[in-house]
Task: structure prediction
Amino acid sequence: MQTYMENAYGKRTTDAFAWTLNISTSVAIVMANKQLMGTAGHGFVFATTLCGLHFACTSGIRFLDGKNENNRADGSAMMVPPREIFLFVVVAIASIVALNFSLMLNTIGFYQVCKLAQIPTMCLLEAIFLGRQFGRKTIQAILIVLVGVGVATVSDMEMNFAGTVAALIGVSCTSAQQIAVSYLQKKHSVSSNFLLAKTSPYMAAAMLGLGPFLDRIVVNEWVTEYEWTEGAVVFLAASCALAVLVNISSFMCIGRFSAVSFQVIGHVKTVLVFFFGFVCFSAPITHRNILGCSLAVMGMIYYSRVQLAEKAQAASRGGALGEKA
Result:
């Protein structure tokens, strides 16, 4: 009994660490990127190339892992088939490219709506392909979060054909990619760091190869034409370092929980971005922002309570079955 309690305590501690690391670094990288990419900052507007640099730095994680980290508890080597790695990378690249084009072709309001659509899309994909069922209270909590974030972030909204297609591809691929992060870890019994180390070098090569050309289309300028300053280099280094931590903690969180939970609880980042934007950059906050963020936080708390209750019920059912056996 004591060992079980110690294991449960250790798991809760690791879960809390993973969420704290992901939320704090995700907010920090937004702040760093505002300085790096913003017109009031250093104007490095090459988003796809920046993603490639992020994955290039993240690919170094394979050198940080010890040799034993690639082995399971039973001593067998971790492995994910190359075909599944290839499909994962293709979907992830399509996600990044489509989201960048969606941001270019759509208004901020429509782009935010599409980001909100990721949660119901994930629920639909998990229900169809993984047979997952969502309880009434879980759906209620998700709806509260979506309404809150929508109220806080969505303002103007205009649609066009090309932008809508890019948004649909971006939402679908992003949802599929995050589900795959959890699915591959569980299917092949591999760690989050192992999966990240296996996929990030291919992501880096593809993004750095495609990035300059895609950025040229989006911003009508080559990345080689950018005039570097000492401040830009500092914020680029900060952005890349934070991206490594964001990627590590994201794979960890999705693997330990689910893609849906990662998206729902992850909306606390939106609330914190508003807060730190106001504190650090004097960004205006309206009553609508405050109302929406408050509603989103209530939804996240409700969702967390529902998930804990469902896990407790599942554990009690498992214990009852064990006693009957």
